[in-house]
Design brief:
39% of the residues lie in helices and 13% in strands. With 438 residues, the chain is of the alpha+beta class. A hairpin with a 2-residue loop joins strand 5 and strand 6. Helix 3 packs antiparallel against helix 5, helix 5 packs across helix 7 and helix 10 packs parallel to helix 11. The longest helix has 22 residues.
Length: 438
């Protein structure tokens, strides 16, 4: 449970009960005061000494491990991968929020109550997520049942990307072994860099558990488990499944990674045959996931300019930029990449939205004002004035705000601008971070 009732994080998230603990910290159910949504909030609670970071990393503390997870997830859009929402710092400790999965259970827990077809469906959802990750060059490195949760509608979500890395960054002989021992591939224990085949080995173990109801190795003894991982070949003949599926699982569990499947898409095709289904193309949601979150390429010059501008902002040197162009040239993607980078650098990123027609005056400042009002000890006088563009400030700040005195229109406009300026200045005075307005 939460240590203190109604504990607030970043002035925005109200914590409720703990949902579980992982290698980096604790995940809580939380309410986002800004949107009213229930989210899952992952917060660092481990001391720096508990972190397992490669000596090749330029990072020195746990903040970076969480930042890596956020950056890995923030660029992903797939129906079987947990979406992340926000990133920030509270008391110098990082946190990020992601979609809350009500009544979530592990893939093996849910699978225990399903028939053969239901188990195959869960396995295919898991493989679709991995196919997407691997095609983007990302290796999960800690795949296990607890990191593949299923919601009440049967949709599987892969999560916990704290150990995820892109392949070029791996150092096979010097990186520490990371992951959960019961699901680590034998070659990783022997010092070989993780690969897609290493993730697929974990899929083989999960598949074995789905159909056997138990793990193939001895989990009660550390020494016995190590020996099993390195030498014991699981007996798939004891599984109550047909020969083609047993052969598929057996191949996934090969000790030599070169003898395993190398591509999750190939396994999906075989499982479709197992289910006696035609080999169909991905559904619309999966196709869109590849289009919406393809690897960010191009716009190098513009990206460099904005990165320099961000560095200047972090040093207290602000600037304004106009990004223009026709629809579809990559403006939103460029800004989203900047948003992710700014968040992990510790900036508060706020977004204003103005419509091309029918917009109210100062409407694009509504969302920035609401966000900053939560993070600032705003006075009733300024709050009353700012209610002109953010009418729900009473509910947001959870206090009654008196109406602003009536004044002439030109005076009211100047008063509103002054209150917006005051809000920004007050935030900067009360907080160490910077503000990025997109």
């Amino acid at each position: 449970m939460v240590e203190h009732a109604e504990q607030m994080i970043g002035s925005r998230y109200r914590l409720h009960e703990s949902l579980g603990q992982g290698g980096m910290g604790t995940v809580y159910r939380a309410t986002d005061r800004l949107t009213g949504q229930v989210v899952a909030l992952k917060r660092v609670t481990k001391p720096t000494s508990a972190l397992h970071i490669s000596k090749h990393s330029t990072y020195t503390n746990l903040q970076v491990s969480l930042a890596n997870e956020f950056q890995a997830l923030a660029s992903l859009r797939h129906p079987n991968i947990i979406p992340v929402l926000d990133y920030g710092f509270a008391n110098s400790q990082p946190y990020f929020t992601m979609r809350f999965i009500p009544q979530a259970r592990s893939v093996t827990h849910v699978g225990a109550g399903l028939d053969h077809e239901g188990k195959l469906d869960l396995l295919m959802q898991l493989l679709r997520a991995l196919s997407y990750l691997h095609r983007r060059g990302i290796i999960h490195r800690d795949l296990k049942p607890e990191n593949a949760l299923v919601d009440e509608d049967g949709q599987l979500m892969v999560l916990d990307f704290g150990l995820a890395q892109e392949r070029p960054e791996l150092h096979p002989t010097t990186d520490r072994v990371s992951g959960t021992l019961g699901y680590i591939a034998p070659e990783v224990l022997q010092g070989i860099a993780p690969s897609p085949a290493s993730d697929l080995y974990a899929v083989g173990l999960i598949a074995y558990e789905l159909f056997a109801g138990e793990h193939p190795y001895d989990l009660n003894s550390h020494a016995a488990l190590l020996q099993d991982i390195l030498t014991n070949i699981p007996d798939v003949s004891r599984l109550d499944i047909d020969a083609p599926l047993a052969t598929l699982i057996e191949r996934l569990l090969k000790k030599n990674p070169l003898e395993r499947y190398q591509d999750a898409a190939e396994i999906i095709a075989q499982l479709q045959t197992e289910k006696d289904q035609p080999k169909t193309s991905d559904d619309e949601a999966v196709i869109n996931s590849f289009l919406q979150a393809a690897r960010f390429v191009g716009r190098e010059a513009e990206s460099r300019q904005l990165h320099v501008a961000l560095e200047n902002v972090m040093q207290g040197k602000g600037s304004s930029w106009l990004i223009g162009g026709e629809s579809g040239v990559g403006k939103s993607r460029l800004l989203n990449e900047l948003r992710i980078l700014a968040l992990v650098r510790g900036a508060l990123v706020v977004t204003g939205l103005g419509l091309s027609s029918g917009s109210l005056p100062y409407e694009l400042w509504r969302d920035p004002v609401r966000r900053l009002a939560l993070a600032t000890d705003i006075s009733d006088e300024d709050a009353a004035i700012l209610k002109e563009i953010a009418p729900d400030l009473d509910q947001l700040l959870e206090r009654e705000i008196p109406a602003a005195p009536k004044v002439k229109e030109e005076i009211a406009q100047k008063r509103l601008i002054d209150s917006i300026k005051t809000l920004f200045r007050q935030f900067l005075a009360e907080n160490e971070g910077r503000v990025i307005v997109l």
